[in-house]
Amino acid sequence: MSFLNKLVINFFCKKIGEDQFGNIYYEGKNSDYLGNKKRYVVYRGIAEPSKVPPLWHAWLHYLSDDLPGSEENYSWQHQHLPNLTGTKFSYHPSSEKLREKVSSDYLKWKPKE
Fold this sequence. Notes:
The chain is α+β, with helices and mostly antiparallel strands. It has a domain of 66 residues. Helices cover 20% and strands 18% of the residues. The protein has a three-stranded antiparallel β-sheet with strand order 1-2-3. The radius of gyration is 22 Å and the shape is elongated. The N and C termini lie far apart (58 Å).
Protein backbone atom coordinates (compact mmCIF):
# COMPACT_ATOMS: atom_id res chain seq x y z
CA MET A 1 0.00 0.00 0.00
CA SER A 2 1.34 3.41 -0.91
CA PHE A 3 2.19 6.13 1.56
CA LEU A 4 -0.67 8.31 0.29
CA ASN A 5 -3.23 5.54 0.87
CA LYS A 6 -1.95 4.99 4.42
CA LEU A 7 -2.14 8.72 5.09
CA VAL A 8 -5.72 8.99 3.81
CA ILE A 9 -6.85 5.98 5.83
CA ASN A 10 -5.20 7.24 9.02
CA PHE A 11 -6.74 10.71 8.78
CA PHE A 12 -10.16 10.07 7.25
CA CYS A 13 -11.12 6.58 8.42
CA LYS A 14 -11.85 4.69 11.62
CA LYS A 15 -10.69 1.11 12.17
CA ILE A 16 -13.69 -1.21 12.56
CA GLY A 17 -12.21 -4.67 12.84
CA GLU A 18 -9.95 -7.43 11.59
CA ASP A 19 -10.64 -10.91 10.22
CA GLN A 20 -8.83 -14.23 10.62
CA PHE A 21 -6.69 -13.55 7.51
CA GLY A 22 -5.31 -10.29 8.92
CA ASN A 23 -7.37 -8.02 6.64
CA ILE A 24 -8.28 -4.74 8.35
CA TYR A 25 -11.66 -3.06 7.82
CA TYR A 26 -12.26 0.69 7.98
CA GLU A 27 -15.19 3.05 7.77
CA GLY A 28 -14.90 6.61 6.50
CA LYS A 29 -15.83 9.53 8.73
CA ASN A 30 -17.89 11.35 6.07
CA SER A 31 -21.24 10.18 4.69
CA ASP A 32 -22.23 9.98 1.04
CA TYR A 33 -25.47 11.37 -0.44
CA LEU A 34 -27.42 8.34 0.87
CA GLY A 35 -26.09 8.77 4.40
CA ASN A 36 -23.80 5.72 4.20
CA LYS A 37 -20.20 5.89 5.32
CA LYS A 38 -17.70 4.50 2.83
CA ARG A 39 -16.30 1.12 3.87
CA TYR A 40 -12.80 -0.11 3.06
CA VAL A 41 -10.67 -3.21 3.42
CA VAL A 42 -6.87 -3.22 3.57
CA TYR A 43 -5.64 -6.67 2.61
CA ARG A 44 -2.79 -8.35 4.40
CA GLY A 45 -0.31 -9.51 1.79
CA ILE A 46 -1.59 -9.80 -1.77
CA ALA A 47 -4.82 -7.95 -2.51
CA GLU A 48 -7.07 -10.95 -3.15
CA PRO A 49 -10.81 -10.26 -2.79
CA SER A 50 -11.57 -13.94 -2.17
CA LYS A 51 -9.79 -13.55 1.21
CA VAL A 52 -12.78 -11.57 2.53
CA PRO A 53 -15.01 -13.87 4.64
CA PRO A 54 -18.77 -13.87 3.88
CA LEU A 55 -19.86 -11.86 6.95
CA TRP A 56 -17.29 -9.14 6.25
CA HIS A 57 -18.32 -9.15 2.58
CA ALA A 58 -21.90 -8.48 3.65
CA TRP A 59 -20.74 -5.61 5.85
CA LEU A 60 -18.57 -4.09 3.10
CA HIS A 61 -21.47 -4.08 0.63
CA TYR A 62 -24.03 -2.64 3.08
CA LEU A 63 -26.01 -5.89 3.20
CA SER A 64 -25.60 -5.90 6.97
CA ASP A 65 -24.80 -3.22 9.52
CA ASP A 66 -23.91 -5.82 12.14
CA LEU A 67 -20.17 -6.16 12.66
CA PRO A 68 -18.88 -9.70 12.29
CA GLY A 69 -17.59 -10.96 15.57
CA SER A 70 -18.22 -13.99 17.67
CA GLU A 71 -21.05 -15.53 15.65
CA GLU A 72 -21.78 -19.13 16.43
CA ASN A 73 -20.88 -21.55 13.67
CA TYR A 74 -23.12 -24.53 13.01
CA SER A 75 -21.69 -28.03 12.69
CA TRP A 76 -22.36 -28.05 8.93
CA GLN A 77 -20.50 -24.77 8.28
CA HIS A 78 -16.97 -24.90 6.91
CA GLN A 79 -14.20 -22.43 7.61
CA HIS A 80 -13.87 -19.82 4.84
CA LEU A 81 -10.96 -20.43 2.45
CA PRO A 82 -9.66 -17.94 -0.11
CA ASN A 83 -9.17 -18.93 -3.73
CA LEU A 84 -6.32 -21.46 -3.75
CA THR A 85 -5.65 -21.38 -7.50
CA GLY A 86 -1.94 -21.09 -8.20
CA THR A 87 -0.90 -22.46 -4.82
CA LYS A 88 0.30 -25.91 -3.81
CA PHE A 89 -3.10 -26.45 -2.16
CA SER A 90 -5.09 -25.99 -5.38
CA TYR A 91 -7.19 -28.81 -6.85
CA HIS A 92 -5.55 -30.91 -9.56
CA PRO A 93 -7.76 -33.51 -11.25
CA SER A 94 -4.72 -35.64 -12.11
CA SER A 95 -3.68 -35.99 -8.47
CA GLU A 96 -2.78 -39.36 -7.02
CA LYS A 97 -5.83 -39.42 -4.74
CA LEU A 98 -8.13 -39.19 -7.74
CA ARG A 99 -6.26 -41.93 -9.59
CA GLU A 100 -6.68 -44.23 -6.61
CA LYS A 101 -10.46 -43.73 -6.68
CA VAL A 102 -10.74 -44.82 -10.30
CA SER A 103 -10.93 -48.59 -10.55
CA SER A 104 -8.04 -50.43 -12.12
CA ASP A 105 -10.18 -51.94 -14.88
CA TYR A 106 -10.93 -48.54 -16.40
CA LEU A 107 -9.49 -47.98 -19.88
CA LYS A 108 -9.40 -44.69 -21.72
CA TRP A 109 -11.21 -44.53 -25.03
CA LYS A 110 -8.86 -44.40 -28.02
CA PRO A 111 -10.16 -43.55 -31.49
CA LYS A 112 -9.52 -46.02 -34.31
CA GLU A 113 -6.87 -44.91 -36.74
